[in-house]
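User: Before I run my own analysis I want an independent prediction to cross-check against. Here's the chain; please return only the structure tokens and, at the end, one sentence I can use as a sanity check.
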Amino acid sequence: MKLTRWSPFGGTAWNPLQQFQREMNRLFDRYGDGASRLFGLGGYPAVNVWEDADNVYLEAELPGVEFKDLEIYVSGGNELTLKGERRPPVPERGVWHRQERTFGAFSRSVALPFPVDPDKVEARLENGVLAVKLAKHEAARPRKISVKGE
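Assistant: Structure tokens:
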């Protein structure tokens, strides 16, 4: 007895979709994280954002980026934009055999969860990691409400 895979809607209708899925899997396997950026699923640079009572913090991985090639903007009260360029290294006496790291200009905007004070922003670039500290706008800071009784 020959076993066949059961298909409730007939094998021919889903065949093109299965083929498309196989092709997409091949694309992601071939280009890895670069395919994620290609389709807008991720971004460069990768960032982490968190907060405490008074500040919002952002860290971005920027290996090979020099501080002079980096610009940081706060706009609209709650949008942080990182712009810059990672310049490719030029081998003095060699030939490239493989080059997987991306180079060139980049821009990444991150919507922050609430407004920040653009005059109270600190940025530091150390060991390829950009650390940005943004003070929350006064209206976004938590306020303790006193409870009164009768």
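Sanity check: The beta strands are 47-51, 55-61, 70-75, 79-86, 104-111, 116-126, 129-136.
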